[in-house]
């Protein structure tokens, strides 16, 4: 788990950004002052806009203290606050956290809740390295559970009488989602791990030269293995060939590093070129008469 810088998130229809003082009207009218929105939350609706202003100012101060992962949610069509979502209750030892969200009544039933929750889950997994997210909702609010399920979460428990509001105790349904890709080795993660073994005394020029020479040298090693199989009757040494391919990958990572490029960007550019060249997959005629 790591703490990354807060930044805006863009989805298909929404923009998640830092809260602003000028959000106070919608913050009050659509969220904290609306009794329907707060019905199944542990606070009473704000009585006036002054109460919301104090609440909003406290949140703005927390951005300065950092790290604070609270997004105001707007639609792309209009930069007007319609919701709020926050990551909280971080447990570094367990690599876990939770969240809370609110959405104005006029925006219910349109998939906005699921869309913003999925975006923040991705942020938690990919940028914070979170292993597990656990959250709950009052059982009497099944719509919230539907949002969590659509976002990929699974109900794991019901805690009887967990919450009390106005003298009434409420059960809570508990949901979780685990980071299925936490230990997945992506190309950029490989590049970062590989470059941890790079000689730090080398200049960027030396790194580039070493990378290109290494690519040539290790490719030659791979060619030699195949040559012995093809021309000398040897068994194809797949294990050794795999090792040489790994060495080629290391020098490719080094060369990209020297150019201040990520492997992912290089691979994506190559795929984009291939899609342009062979939009329907490999084509013999396009291969012969291609222009690039």
Task: Give the DSSP E fraction (strand runs of 2 or more residues).
Answer: 15-25%
The outline comes out as elongated
Q: Count of helices?
A: 9
The CA-CA distance between the termini, in Å, is: 44 Å
- Portion in helices: 40-55%
User: How many domains is the backbone divided into?
Assistant: 2
Radius of gyration: 26 Å
CATH architectural type of the largest domain = 3-Layer(aba) Sandwich
Instruction: State the name of the first-level CATH class of the largest domain.
Output: Alpha Beta
Poorly predicted sequence stretches spanning 5 or more consecutive residues: none
Q: For the residues shown, what is the average pLDDT?
A: 93
Total count of strands: 8
Please list the strands of the largest sheet in the order they lie side by side: 1-2-3-4-5-6-8-7
* CATH homologous superfamily designation of the largest domain: Gcn5-related N-acetyltransferase (GNAT)
Q: Briefly note the structural class of the backbone.
A: alpha+beta
Largest sheet: 8 strands, mixed
CATH T-level topology of the largest domain: Aminopeptidase
């Amino acid at each position: 788990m790591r703490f990354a810088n807060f930044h805006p998130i863009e989805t298909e229809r929404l923009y998640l950004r830092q809260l602003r003082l000028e959000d106070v009207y919608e913050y009050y009218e659509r969220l904290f002052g609306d009794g329907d929105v707060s019905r199944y939350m542990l606070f009473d609706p704000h009585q006036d806009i002054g109460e919301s202003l104090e609440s909003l100012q406290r949140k703005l101060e927390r951005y300065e203290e950092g790290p604070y992962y609270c997004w105001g949610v707007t639609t792309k069509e209009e930069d007007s606050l319609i919701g709020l979502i926050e990551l909280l209750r971080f447990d570094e030892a367990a690599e876990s956290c939770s969240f809370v969200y609110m959405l104005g009544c006029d925006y219910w039933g349109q998939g906005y809740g699921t869309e913003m929750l999925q975006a923040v889950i991705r942020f938690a997994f990919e940028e914070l390295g979170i292993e597990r997210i656990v959250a709950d909702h009052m059982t009497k609010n099944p719509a919230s559970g539907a949002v969590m399920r659509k976002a990929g979460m699974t109900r794991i428990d019901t805690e009887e009488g967990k919450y009390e509001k106005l003298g009434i105790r409420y059960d809570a349904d508990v949901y979780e989602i685990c980071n299925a890709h936490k230990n997945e080795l992506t190309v950029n993660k490989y590049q970062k791990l590989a470059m941890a073994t790079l000689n730090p005394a080398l200049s960027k020029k030396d790194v580039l030269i070493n990378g290109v020479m290494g690519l040539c040298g290790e490719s030659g090693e791979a060619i030699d293995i195949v040559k012995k199989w093809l021309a000398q009757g040897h068994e194809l040494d797949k294990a050794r060939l795999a090792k040489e391919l790994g060495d080629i990958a290391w020098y490719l990572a080094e060369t990209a590093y020297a150019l201040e490029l990520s492997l992912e960007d290089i691979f994506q550019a190559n795929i984009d070129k291939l899609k342009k060249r062979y939009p329907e997959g490999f084509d013999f005629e396009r291969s012969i008469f291609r222009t690039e």
